[in-house]
Amino acid sequence: MLEPAYQADVVVVGAGVAGLSAAHRLTSAGVTTMVLEAAHGVGGRMATEKVDGFRLDRIGQLLSTAYPELRLTPGLGTLVLRPFAPGVLLYGDGRHHRAGVQAGTGGARGALHAVRALASAPRSPSAPRPPRRPVAVPGRQVSVPRSRSGAPLGTAVDQARLGAALTRLAGTPAERLLARPELPAGEALAARGLPARTIDGFLRPLLAALLCDPDLTTSSRCADLALRAFASGRLCLPEGGAEALPELLARMLPAGTVHTGVRVTSVATTSVTTAEHGEIRCRAVLVATDARAAAELLPGLRVPEFHPVTVVHHTTDEPPGTGASLLLDADLGGPVAHTAVVSQIDPSRAPAGRALVSSTVLGRPPGDVDTAVRMHLARLYGVSTARWETLGVYRTAEAVPAMRPPHDLRRPVRLLAGLYVCGDHRDTSTVQGALHSGHRASAAILADLGAGRSMHVADPVPTVPRAA
Ligand SMILES: Cc1cc2nc3c(=O)[nH]c(=O)nc-3n(C[C@H](O)[C@H](O)[C@H](O)COP(=O)(O)OP(=O)(O)OC[C@H]3O[C@@H](n4cnc5c(N)ncnc54)[C@H](O)[C@@H]3O)c2cc1C
User: What is the pLDDT of residue 127?
Assistant: First the structure.
């Protein structure tokens, strides 16, 4: 049991990546910190379930190597990121097309605009018979798009314009993007001077996947930041599952810092009350929960709308031939926004001889989501999915806070001296945003407390179990 009168300098409420990264910065500065987490493990939304040797993420995680906080957050130095194949693979007009390949990442020469049709997929949605040969041969160009329309990316000139636009975006400082006029992303795209085909065939499905927002109501500034990260980095997954990131942060904290199974019921500037251990006194409190829980603890804090996300995991012993690609549907012909054979990207996620296919459905899922997803996947991968085994279907109604315009990317993290808040709802609704909000909040706390030394004179470390 915790001593009711136990004191730490800072109590952090919530062991998601925002709270854990803030705790890391605080303890590194010599500030005694206690992280209280209501669940029985750390990680919050970045949870990974282990089922029969598979590692199943509740979230269809897409990280970017260009997320600055993955580099800047202390403790993440040994995080292994597994990259997707360069760019994305688009299914459109009955074929696969590789798009958005950066220079120097294994394909295009000198530009972002390499587009290659890798092979034909079956034409009829109702005839998902597997083709004799793989739908894509990694590293081998089979043909260039030959359809009259050049769908889904338009003509060679259209593609060159897209490449130039992405190259420009990659080189534009974030602050310049944040000074642009702000519109819903879908409306802003139309004003960019790009052909409708490029927008509908590539940018819409890509942005929907990156923002978890199928209707593109997100602020155009956030959309620009997401596209910039795409254009200047590589999409990737954490090796071992989404939980690898928060678990690494938790492991790097001093022993006894994280206490799981402790729900905070109220907060003040100098104490928190817990359901299990009564009051804990401290010099500052950082609320690092999701937006809804934060508003319960801090009445008056705004609760945003959320984008629901469903992730469906299948296994098969005959992996489709798309290699390590992220596959998007340019035709928007079904519920799946993006899918990948994730065991090809991160082999640790599936036992030997099995492939793990993870697919993400944005918005409200259809009634029989598994059947609808299987039918769509049969078309996207060009194989029969009838014998694929379903490993898990994870629905998260409040997955990602909506970032409609006007969206403040730097919501205040210091509410009062002694009371702070962080989490993805204070920044962008991404792992980058959550980590960055933790960065800002810990800086504000250290400034108020007087950085560099502990205010708290030793009390015994409480004997509640530490998170695994
Ligand atoms: C399905 C899905 C898909 C996503 N896809 C992507 C993606 O592709 N790319 C990307 O960058 N991001 C993605 N995200 C978003 C990303 O996962 C989140 O932005 C990030 O994990 C948020 O971290 P956090 O620390 O702010 O909050 P959380 O992870 O929500 O952590 C908050 C913690 O607070 C705890 N808590 C709540 N109330 C209390 C209380 N009263 N007392 C104690 N503890 C409490 C919770 O249990 C939780 O552990 C996705 C999220 C979901 C759900």
Answer: 32
Could you tell me the fold of the domain covering 7-46+243-305+410-449?
A: FAD/NAD(P)-binding domain (3.50.50)
Distance of alpha carbon 412 from alpha carbon 416, whole angstroms:
10
- Give the residue ranges of the annotated binding site for FAD: 37-38
What is the per-residue pLDDT for 197?
86
Ligand 1 binding residues, C-beta < 6 A:
13-19, 36-39, 44-46, 59-63, 212, 263-264, 288-290, 293, 309, 311, 396, 399-400, 423-424, 429-432, 434
82-237+307-400 sits in which CATH class? alpha beta
Which ranges of the chain have pLDDT less than 70?
1-6, 102-151, 451-468
Output the residue whose Cα is nearest ligand 1's atom 35: 14
How far is the centre of ligand 1, averaged over its atoms, from the C-alpha of 460 (Å)? 31
Largest CA distance in the chain: 75
Residue 6 has a pLDDT of 57
Closest-lying ligand 1 atom to the alpha carbon of residue 433: 19
Domain ranges of the chain: 7-46+243-305+410-449, 82-237+307-400
Instruction: Please give the helix or strand (H or E) that residue 438 lies within, else none.
Output: helix 431-449
Q: Whose CA is nearest to atom 48 of ligand 1?
A: 44
pLDDT of 63 reads 95
Q: What is the dihedral of CA 262, 267, 270, 271, to 10 degrees?
A: -30
Distance 5 CA to ligand 1 centre (A): 30
pLDDT for the residue numbered 93: 85
- Alpha carbon of 91 to ligand 1 centroid (Å): 31
3 state SS of 67: coil
pLDDT at 460: 36
**pLDDT of res. 7:** 77
Residue whose C-alpha is closest to residue 76's, from 434, 453, 393: 434
Please check whether the two domains, 7-46+243-305+410-449 and 82-237+307-400, share a CATH topology: no
The residue among 439, 383, 394 whose CA lies nearest residue 413 is 439
Overall pTM > 0.85? yes
Ligand 1 atom index nearest CA of 423: 26
74 C-alpha to center of ligand 1: Å? 19
Q: Where are the beta strands (DSSP E) in 38-190?
A: 48-51, 54-57, 63-64, 81-83, 88-92, 95-101, 114-120
Ligand 1 centroid vs 435 CA: distance in angstroms? 11
Measured between alpha carbons, how far is 323 from 325 in angstroms, rounded to an integer? Answer: 6
From the CA of 424, give the closest atom in ligand 1: 26
